[in-house]
Amino acid sequence: MGCAGSSQTKxxxxxxxxxxxxxxxxxxxxxxSQLMKMREEFWDTAPHxxxxxxxxxxxxxxxxxxxxxxQAIVDSAxxxxxxxxxxxxxxxxxxxxxxxxxxxxxxTNLIQDS
Length: 114
Hints:
By secondary structure, the chain is an alpha+beta fold. About 35% of the residues lie in helices and about 10% in strands. Helix 2 runs antiparallel to helix 3 (about 65-75). The radius of gyration is 15 Å and the shape is globular. The N and C termini lie far apart (about 55 Å).
């Protein structure tokens, strides 16, 4: 049984429901393996952009999860979502976390690996 404070309503405006990112196009055609390499490089270097490693880890887990689980991860980690697609978030201390669209979804011009 939950308490009134555990609902995901926007009562105070700080909780934003996560949604899938809008379709986007990469600057040039890109293969799945190239995209995966870019994503790996981002997550390997993300903690060096600032913020706390545990928040980056939670964001990584949320990005890889379905929307319901992603919402639960973000809420439990105390992440403040500015952009519902997770491109811009903050932690409780005010540190900013920016995630590029290529990490969140596939581009419309994704091509097969040859």
